[in-house]
Protein 1
Amino acid sequence: MLNDERFYGHTALIDEEHGVETKEGPNPAIFDPQLFREHAEAILPTLESHLADHSIRGLKLVEPAILLSLAKDLMTKEQGAVVPFDREKFKAIIDLYIKTGIQVHSPGFMGRQFSGVVPLAGVVDMVSSIVNQPSSFYEAGQLPNVAERIMANEFNQFIGYQPDRFTMITTSGGSLANLTALLAARNDKFPTVWNEGLWAFEGQLRPAIAISEEAHYSVSRAAGILGIGENQLVRLPINQAGQIDITKVPQALEAAEQRGLKVFCMVASAGTTSMGAFDDIDQLADIAGTKDIWLHIDGAHGGSLLVSDELRHKLKGIQKADSLTWDAHKMLFVPSPCSLLFYRNKEKSYAAFKQVASYVFEKEPNIYTEFDSAEKNFECTKRPMIMNLWVLWALHGRALFSNKVDHLCKLARHACRILEKEPDFQVLHQPESNILCFRYLPKELDNYSIADFQVEIRNRVCKHGQFFISKVDIHGESALRVVFMNHEIKMSHFRMLLQAVVKSGQQVINEYQQHPKQ
Ligand SMILES: Cc1ncc(COP(=O)(O)O)c(C=O)c1O
């Protein structure tokens, strides 16, 4: 442990006359490079054994009051002086951090759209934290801005936008990417709103956004934020597979017009959250094109299928979309957040934020400021999130990602085949990506509520601690949802999960038969 006396207070001497410091600033030892090595080395073995732990387990929820107390016990009570680094306490905090999280790289983790990251990306993330180069301005983060340009071009090979016209920015999460794209769409179609605010809509048809019944909540939330209002969302009906029913779109748009709505933007999903379903981008783009509607694709989940030669066809027509959200922190296995927002037309990306700020924005871009993204994104100080992705891409190449994406989607298809052979299970769709939804419906279920039954099974399976799965409403009724995000999962694990589902289900039935609800 470093026990430097410099920890204990402000050692700087102030030249009273000139008001400047003549010696060192406060607590210099906190910034000691050797101390950094000590910090990092203290937890490397812990992280290594965390990564090496492939036991099958989900999540054990700790009561918040208990965790609060454990966390508070690890805090110093000292208020007056800076306390020296305490290696043991630091290790205890990191242990608590790890132990109370979902074991994201365990084969028992099948519940959410994030998973274990490629560990190298975590190392790059640490470098980003130490060198601290925010990436909205070239002068603050030179390599991150160059890396953004490189990755934009690399990924555009799979999208197919005109190379000299498109652009890409990074945002902290897919929700912010969706909001930013919808803002650009609104300002493009209603150019006076930025200055006039909602007054600009007065006397016009009400601006509306057409979205799938299955759209992620960040899309409907964006309508609220942008002054469009949730009531002006035109819900496009879906088919059994969870995709927008193309045959019903013209009719839905017409009905909206008759209600006094002007649909200026349509949002399709490339991978819905609930079923991982892909809307028919090609046909939706044609419809949008004839009506001068901005087409945004929410590919937060499934945009990553673009890197796969086998699965890219799911996003057929993507080059016709005006904008695309793509989360690398989902299926490209880098630490969150790392979201990419693509625009087909670079000029339109500037519509999102029409501002003048002489302290940062240049009227005439030069060779440096031309790389700035601040005018196009909400965040001013922004994490150089692209570095995690770019370094993996630079060192390992595309196959690292495409192999993983192919593998996870294949797991979902195999799991579906297994379920189809089980008479007590109902498969709800043919998986288009790595998400599979189903119900356990044994004959003994009798008149127990199907919806309550699925929820109860999910809760019991998770509580048992071996598997972590989610629940979702499919066509209005609860179902079990498995997300194959984790490359450690084998079919044997999925079979074990089914056993756990059956066991929990049978327990519920037995309890119900003994004590039927009134
Ligand atoms: C389809 C879809 N869109 C948007 C989001 C939101 O992305 P983020 O969590 O990165 O904000 C999600 C998250 O799961 C999603 O599944």
Note: Confidence is low (pLDDT under 50) at residues 1-13.
Protein 2
Amino acid sequence: MRALVVIPTYNEIGNVGKIIDAALGVSEITEVLIVDDNSPDGTGAAADNMAKSNPRVHVMHRAGKMGLGSAYIEGFRYALDKGYGYIFEMDADFSHDPAEIPRFLEAAKEADVVIGSRYVDGIRILNWPLKRLMLSYFASVYARTITGLKLCDTTGGYKCFRREALLKLDLSRIHSDGYSFQIEMNFLCQKKGLKLKEIPIVFSDRRAGISKMNKGIIFEALAVVWLLKIKSILGIL
Ligand SMILES: Nc1nc2c(ncn2[C@@H]2O[C@H](COP(=O)(O)OP(=O)(O)OP(=O)(O)O)[C@@H](O)[C@H]2O)c(=O)[nH]1
Ligand SMILES: [Mg+2]
């Protein structure tokens, strides 16, 4: 069965070539889909160049910066359409180590969704300022407390879905972005009775490029968890 690693990019010229090579190098069954939002730094063109000479590289171009959540949804649709058996979420900036892909594939034999967890059995984050680590950690605690998610890391973005798991979700109803996109996906998967498994990963700060983290992402997450809970109580999720 083939695996598609979906990597959304916005201004990742310093990372895109290396992350594609790394994701392809760890397993014979991996292919990569770059979902680029017309990055001004030429990330999309660099990915196109690699796709020309390598049939395992695919590129989707979108008109402008439309957010991480919708980039993943479009990537998932592509993966389902083309028949991939395993579908990954992974960042382009090497915060997620592509060398872990085989461990995800192994774990996916016994789970519907495998979640790379920074907070299971301790805390493993390298080179983040304490402020950011605290924000991420307590965002996870907050989301878990309110939604009842049975996960230590509710906002992590390194994941592997089995095809059948994604097919069970109504992707057209997912509208959130950033942190909240991850929370919403996890919540919907748990609601559908899918088996979620956390495996420990080490998360490192981005290798190159500038951070796209902003306050909007935090406020969205604060609101989305309540929205999910209310929808769930009303039975409209
Ligand atoms: N296609 C697309 N990709 C995006 C968008 N925003 C972020 N990304 C990509 O999504 C991945 C995760 O975003 P990051 O900016 O690394 O988010 P983060 O890890 O919370 O924060 P930093 O690493 O500090 O920037 C990276 O590969 C980004 O290039 C977007 O609007 N569209
Ligand atoms: Mg990052």
Note: Residues 91, 93, 95, 206 surround magnesium ion (ligand 2) (CB under 6 Å).
